[in-house]
Design brief:
2 domains; binds pyridoxal-5'-phosphate; 3-stranded antiparallel β-sheet; about 30% helix; alpha/beta; 12 strands; binds iron/sulfur cluster; about 375 residues; TIM Barrel
Length: about 375
Amino acid sequence: MKDREDLSIANPLWNDWKWQYANRITTVEQLSQLICLSEKEKDEINLCLQSFRMAITPYYASLMKKDDSNDPIHRQAIPSIEETYLCGNDMEDPLNEEHDSPVPHIVHRYPDRVLFLVTLQCSMYCRHCTRRRTVGEGDRVITEKELQKALAYIRKHEEIRDVLISGGDPLTMPDAKLEHIISEIRAIEHVDIIRIGTRVPVVMPMRITNELTSMLKKYQPIWINTHFNHPSEITREAEAACMAIVDAGIPLGNQSVLLRGINDSSKIMKELLLKLVHMRVRPYYLYQCDLSVGIGHFRTNVEEGIEILHELTGYISGYAIPKFVIDAPAGGGKIPVNYNYVIQKDDKEVVMENYRGETYRYPQP
Ligand SMILES: *Cc1c(COP(=O)(O)O)cnc(C)c1O
Ligand code: SF4
C-alpha cells in the first residue's frame, strides 16, 4: 500500500505547483488529517459538498490556524453549514452572465471588452465564489472547437479591445494550453490589452514560475488581477509570486470581496491594502458580496463597505484605495458606490467635505 502523502512543507515537492494541485484536499477524510473535526462537522461538510466542491492546496491549508473555525483562511476554504441555507434574494446567476453570453465562454456586457471564461477549474474553491453555479463542476477546460468559436466572435467584433481571460482560474492550465489561447488572442489586430484574472498568487503562489512569466512577457501588453482578501494571505511565497509578475513588466491589480467576519473592518482592510501596495499590487476593486446561492452569511450591509473606505481615504496613499463596487444583480454591471463628499452643488458653488469632515467651498467659474 502506498504511504500516505506527506502534505507538510517538509515534502521535497512542496514548491512544485503540479504537486500542490494534484494533492489538494478535496474530501472530509483528508481534511480531518489536518484539523480536528467532530462527527457533526464532518456530516455538515459532506452535506455542503453535495452542492459545491472543496479543494484546498496544501500550501493554502498550511496558512490555516488549526483549531479556529473563525480563522479567515479557514472560512474561505472550508465549507460551513451556512452554505446550505437559502436566503430570499439568492440567485443562481446573479450577474446574469448567461444573458450576455453571445457564444459559449464569452460574456460581452461592456462596449469595448469581453470576459473570456476558459476553464471551470480553480486551484482552490473559494467558499464565497460568485460563479459557484458553474465553477468546480467537473474539471472542464475549453475545447479547441469552443475556443475557435469564441475567437471567431472576438475577431468579428472590432469594438473589442480588451479581453479578460478568467474562469475558473486560467493559471490552473498548463503553460502550453494557456500560451495557445493567449497567442491566438494576441494575433487579433484590434485586441489591445489582454487581462488575466487569477487567484493563483494567493492560493498556489509556486505556480508563478520563470517559464510562465517569460511566456506571458512575449504577449504584452498583459495585465493581471489577483484576489487577496486578508493580510494573513500575504506570505513570503505570495510576495515572491507578485514580485515575479510585476518584475516581468506586468501590472498587477487586486480585487477583494468584502466578507463578513473576514475583512469587514477598516483596521484589517488597511493592513491588507498597505501590504498590497508594498508588493506593488494596486488595489483595484473592493466588491460587495453578491447574491450567489449559499453565501448569504458572508454578506455585509452596503453602508459598511462605504464607511470602511471613507475611514481610510485621505489617511493612507491614494494608490492603496480600491473602488468599492456592487456588481449589480441582473447584469447591470459594476456600479461604484461611494461616500458622498459633495454636500451641495449649484451654479455658484460646490460645498464639499474633506476627508476629516471639514467643510470647503469651491466657486463655480
Ligand atoms: C468585470 C467585468 C469586466 C471588466 O470590467 P472592468 O471594470 O474594465 O475591470 C468585463 N466584462 C464583464 C462581464 C465583467 O463582469
Ligand atoms: S478562484 Fe475565483 S473563480 Fe475560483 S473559486 Fe475562487 S473566487 Fe471562484
